[in-house]
Amino acid sequence: MAATARATLKPFVPTFPCFSSIIVSLTKKPEVDFGLRVIGGDLMAIPGLHHFVQETICKQVARLYLWPQTLDIPILDSSIGAVKKPVGILHVKVLRAQKLLNTDFLSKSDPYVKLSLGGDRLPAKKTTVKMNTLNPVWNEDFKLTVKDPESQVLQLHLYDWEKIGAHDKLGMQVVPLKLLNPYEKKELTLDLVHSTNPNDPQNKKARGQIMLEMSFIPFQEDSKKFSGPLHIHERKESISSLSDDNYSLRGAGLLLVTVIGAEDVEGKHHTNPYAVVVLRGEKKKTKARNKTWNPKWEEEFQFVLEEAPLKDLIHIEVKSKKRRFGFRSKELLGYVDIQLMDVIYNGRINEKYHLINSKDGILHVDIRWKVNLYAIWHYKNNNNILSVILQVVFERVGRMQTLSLPFVRYIGCFQMRPSTHNLAYELV
Fold it and tell me: Which residues are within 8 A (CB) of 154 and not within 5 positions of it... i.e. 6 or more apart?
């Protein structure tokens, strides 16, 4: 297989080899030469089979690794602090699309949009399906958790919904998050293409446009990374001081729940424990650990909330499951209900809890609350004159530019490109 790949080393850390992971993606569709012999005979000599196999492999490899899809290869252990943590929320409002392709024979397309962030393994978010139209109007809002606004891109894929069979692809587009200024709403009109490959001949075909609004809102504790050395941050009345009770308790934010592990969980029939986390009807679960009383999960779950969960309980169950003779049996090993008020006031808790309905079972969890700065501004805007100061600060933040490493060098067959947080190499 021959392909042009791009490798990004990031993020930088103070531990050798000075970066925590390698992110690889293909810059164009790979070329594959595939051979298969059975008992001395070449199956690829069958007419049409060689071309079919080559195209199938190329499409599958491109679907997995062609930019903006990436392969993340971890180099350092997460204990070194190299794992990317969420730094803010991307607000996306899908407004409408126009002049879309018509892939149906007797009627018009039934379009919908899938949204996701590059490098994020979370399921894509979807709009509703608009039936029988080439000019759909959605006006639907979505929130996506951002870990690296310098490198992540918003991926938009439009499909024609089908009742039976695969959904037809109408077009796609990507938006690099580094084009956004923090706190600043940006309206975009994007021409849809077939793929991100600039040499794709199908990109010449008109596929219509999609309109959307985007804004990136950093969390309060991460705001200085994106705002620069403003004078207001040097005073005691800085933005960080606004996390006091009346302000940080009223707005949207991100609840991070890390299920670390459990101890002495024993089932009556089997012990293959996994944890289920439930908050406001949203359910998430860890992977199962087979045949152990002391499972270690270290899995993090994210809940984007419109308001601080002051009166909410988070419900966590430890269960066991086993498949036998085609049937799956489940058993509850214990549960715990955690009041989130302490998390909101303290910002974080890291505790071990005795499991209810368990003899000696203990659950270890870490829960953090990250405040959305825009929510603080919105509250102040409706209460006192300090909102004017904050608004000026946010406007200045939106105009500031980050500094890049001042060099571009060529080393052998590698091309080094400057970036604030990482080095990108293009294999040529």
Answer: 90, 92, 115, 116, 117, 118, 144, 174, 175, 177, 214
Residue pair 290/267 in contact by the 8 Å Cβ criterion: no
Report the alpha-carbon angle 293-297-302, nearest 5: 140
pLDDT tens string 96-128 = 999 999 988 788 999 999 999 987 777 889 999
d(CA 230, CA 222): 14
Phi-psi region of 334 (alpha: psi -120 to 50; beta: other; left: phi over 0): left
Cis, bond preceding 17 (omega within 30 deg of 0): yes
Order of strands across the sheet that contains 296-305: 296-305, 253-263, 362-371, 348-354
- The string of DSSP codes covering 55-87 is HHHHHHHHHHHBTT--EEEE-S-GGGT-S----
Higher pLDDT, 29 or 160: 160
Residue 349 class from Cβ within 10 Å (0-12 exposed, 13-18 middle, 19+ buried)? middle
- Distance of alpha carbon 421 from alpha carbon 338, whole angstroms: 37
Residue 203 amino acid letter: N
- Work out the angle between the directed axes of helices 386-399 and 373-381 (0-180°, nearest 10): 140
- Nearest 5°: the CA angle 244, 246, 247 is 70
Largest interatomic CA distance in the chain: 84
Q: For 330-373, write each residue's pLDDT tens digit.
A: 899 999 999 998 898 888 999 999 999 998 999 999 999 988 65
Instruction: Enumerate the β-bridge partners of residue 145.
Output: 89
The CA angle 343-344-347, to the nearest 5 degrees, is: 70
- 272: Cβ contacts below 8 Å, ≥ 6 apart: 288, 289, 290, 291, 320, 321, 322
Closest-CA residue to 144 (of 86, 65, 211, 70): 86
Categorize the per-residue pLDDT at 157 as very low, low, confident or very high, splitting at 50, 70 and 90.
very high
- Pick from 21-25, 35-39, 392-396: least confident: 392-396
What is the pTM (predicted TM-score) of this model?
A: 0.58
**pLDDT at residue 230 is higher than 50:** no
Q: How far apart are CA 4 and CA 197, in angstroms?
A: 12
How far apart CA 402 and CA 393 sit, in angstroms, is: 16
The amino acid at residue 136 is P
